[in-house]
Amino acid sequence: MTEEILVSDEQLAEEILTLLSRTPGTVRVLLEDLPPGLLHADEGEGTFSPFSVLGHLIQGEIDDWIPRARWILEHGRERAFPPFDRFAHVERTRGRTLDELLTEFETLRETGLAVLREVVEGEADLDAGGLHPELGEVTLRQLLTTWAVHDLNHIAQIARVVAHRFEDEVGPWKAYLPILHHDR
Questions:
Q1: DSSP symbols for 59-117
Q2: Distance CA 116, CA 151 (A)
Q3: Per residue in 85-130, pLDDT tens?
Q4: How far apart are CA 109 and CA 79, in angstroms?
Q5: How far apart are CA 98 and CA 39, in angstroms?
Q6: Contacts of 128 (CB under 8 A, 6+ apart)
Q7: Which of the 8 DSSP states describes residue 43?
Q8: DSSP 3-state assignment of 172?
Q9: Distance between CA 137 and CA 143 in Å, rounded?
Q10: pTM for the complete prediction?
Q11: pLDDT of 3 strictly over 60
Q12: Which pLDDT band holds residue 42 (cuts at 50, 70, 90)?
């Protein structure tokens, strides 16, 4: 059974590029001037604070999205691409300021978008296949779509983590705030 493609390659590329281009500004607005108690709040051991989310997004720009897209186009299904270390950002961000990281993310994303535009405008086959080290066969279309949804996931995570800092303070209104009902 093959999956039905719901949008054209051109429309998909436009939507992905639009979402990806907005993430750095959205993250900057969410994090800039955030008090340290909110910036470094998390949901428990092994979870990301808003500051860690930013580091993770940066690491993805360096080691994940564009490198994997290139890998798919170069190696196809011949060899699995290298695994992504979801926690590599911890050491990379240690001792760095929020502004440094926001600027680095903006710069890396701009570069990544330029490469992605070249791939899309070069009419790369979005159905080109690759091998994920854990998931098996994937397509370029799935990778690029996942990139955009991954951004949205982490934007929502930032909002959720910040909201949870106020969970005990909202009193009975908690019943009307679905963001506070999310399983951590």
A1: HHHHHTHHHHHHHHHHHTTSSBPPPP-TTTHHHHHTT--HHHHHHHHHHHHHHHHHHHH
A2: 15
A3: 888 887 888 899 999 999 999 999 999 999 999 988 877 788 999 9
A4: 26
A5: 9
A6: 72, 73, 76, 139, 140
A7: S
A8: helix
A9: 11
A10: 0.91
A11: no
A12: very high
